[in-house]
C-alpha cells in the first residue's frame, strides 16, 4: 500500500492559479471566462451535424487500422479511457479501431435518444438520426488521423443501416476536435446552453 500526502490547501490554490494563468495566456480572456463558467453554473457546447446523404470522405490513417463493433466490455477497458464506459443501453454501440490487434480508439453512437452527460439532459432524436459521442484515441496514437477515419467509417455504417443524419457536441473552444470533426464533414448548426442553480437547471438551444 502506498500512502501519499495530499497537497495543502495553499498548494492546491497555487496549482489552480497557475492553471488559470496558463489558460488565460494561451487561449485569451474569452476562453478563460467560458471555462470558468463551465466549471461552475453555466455550460455551452457546439452542436454539430452531418447529412449522411452527402458523400463521405475516404480518410486513411497513417497506420494500418482495422475497425469493427466492440462486443466485449473487458476489451473496452483495456484502452483505459478517461471517462470510463457509458452505461450500456440497447440503443448504444461502440466502434473500435485496432493497430496490430491492439485497441487504440473508440467511438460511441446512440439512436432514438441521446443522453448529454455534460448537461444531465436527454436529447430526443428524430427517426433516422444518430448521436456520436465519447470519441477517444490512445495518446500514443494521436496525430495519425485515426479519429477522423473512425468517424468516417461510423458514418458509412450508419448510412448503410438507413440513417440520414448524424449529430455530436463539442466545446466551442476545442479547436482540435472541431478540426477533426470537420474532416468528416461535420458543421456547427446550433449552440446548446445550460444554466444550473442548485437542483434546478435550464437547457436551451440557439440555431446558427
CATH superfamily of the largest domain: Gcn5-related N-acetyltransferase (GNAT)
Describe the main β-sheet briefly.
8 strands, mixed
Q: Segments where pLDDT lies below 50 for 5+ residues?
A: 1-17
Strands in their spatial order, largest beta sheet:
2-3-4-7-8-1-9-10
Number of strands: 10
Strand content: 35-45%
Could you name the CATH class of the largest domain? Alpha Beta
Along the chain, the helix and strand elements come as HEEHEEEEEHEHEE
Total individual domains: 2
Describe this structure in words.
The chain is an alpha+beta fold. It has two domains: 9-40, no CATH class; 44-207, Aminopeptidase, CATH 3.40.630.30. The protein is built from four helices and ten strands. The strands form two sheets. An eight-stranded mixed beta sheet has the order 2-3-4-7-8-1-9-10. The longest helix is centred in the first third of the chain and has 30 residues, at 9-38.
Amino acid at each position: 500500500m502506498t500512502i501519499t500526502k495530499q497537497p495543502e490547501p495553499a498548494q492546491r490554490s497555487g496549482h489552480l492559479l497557475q492553471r488559470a494563468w496558463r489558460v488565460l495566456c494561451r487561449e485569451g480572456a474569452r476562453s478563460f471566462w467560458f471555462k470558468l463558467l463551465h466549471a461552475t453554473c453555466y455550460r455551452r457546447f457546439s452542436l454539430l451535424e452531418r447529412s449522411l446523404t452527402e458523400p463521405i470522405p475516404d480518410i486513411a490513417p497513417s497506420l494500418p487500422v482495422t475497425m469493427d463493433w466492440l462486443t466485449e466490455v473487458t476489451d473496452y477497458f483495456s484502452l483505459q479511457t478517461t471517462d470510463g464506459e457509458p452505461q450500456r443501453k440497447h440503443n448504444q454501440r461502440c466502434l473500435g479501431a485496432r493497430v496490430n490487434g491492439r485497441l487504440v480508439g473508440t467511438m460511441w453512437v446512440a439512436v432514438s435518444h441521446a443522453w448529454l452527460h455534460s448537461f444531465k439532459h436527454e436529447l430526443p432524436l428524430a427517426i433516422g438520426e444518430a448521436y456520436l459521442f465519447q470519441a477517444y484515441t490512445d495518446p500514443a496514437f494521436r496525430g495519425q488521423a485515426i479519429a477522423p477515419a473512425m468517424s468516417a467509417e461510423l458514418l458509412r455504417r450508419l448510412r448503410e443501416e438507413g440513417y440520414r443524419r448524424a449529430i455530436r457536441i463539442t466545446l466551442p473552444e476545442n479547436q482540435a476536435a472541431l478540426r477533426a470533426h470537420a474532416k468528416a464533414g461535420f458543421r456547427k448548426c446550433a449552440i446548446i446552453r445550460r444554466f444550473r442553480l442548485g437542483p434546478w437547471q435550464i437547457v436551451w438551444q440557439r440555431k446558427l
